[in-house]
Amino acid sequence: MQRRATLFGLLAAGLAAGSKSARAGQNPFATHKLVLQLSDASAEKQQLIISVANSVLKDYPNTASIVVVAFGPGVALLYANGPERVAVDSLVAQGVEFDVCMNTIDTIKRKTGHAPKLNPRARPVPYGVPRIMQLVAKGYVLVRP
Prior knowledge:
46% of the residues lie in helices and 17% in strands. It has a 5-stranded parallel beta sheet with strand order 4-3-2-1-5, sandwiched between helices. α3 (85-93) links the parallel β2 (64-70) and β3. It starts with a helix and ends with a strand. The protein is globular, with a radius of gyration of 17 Å. It is built from 5 helices and 5 strands. The protein has a single domain (2-143), classed as DsrEFH-like (Hypothetical Protein Ychn, Chain: A), CATH 3.40.1260.10. By secondary structure, it is an alpha/beta fold.
């Protein structure tokens, strides 16, 4: 009986640990891992990021893990009232993760006196570039459209 309880405890701990590591792109079984870098605020780049993510999901519907990392002027994609809000929310619903650099947000706050309102589905990360480096180290392919 005690052995069964110990086994159950180990299984539960393993599942909990697995759910934390599965956060990136939200597909723990992904064989196609993509990180998209967005570091400028142009509408064309924002639309291209959305288009690339949609295309990859279409080609690899069950095996893609996609993380969009926005920093510098690219954080504009993740403003709460941004023009691509619906597209971002749709991609999040399909498992795409959108990371927003809080260092950039802090810089904006220092310059303007207030932080922009962010899409609540955006995932705050301390720094954009180190986040990209972490993902690349985990086997993600970096694309900067």
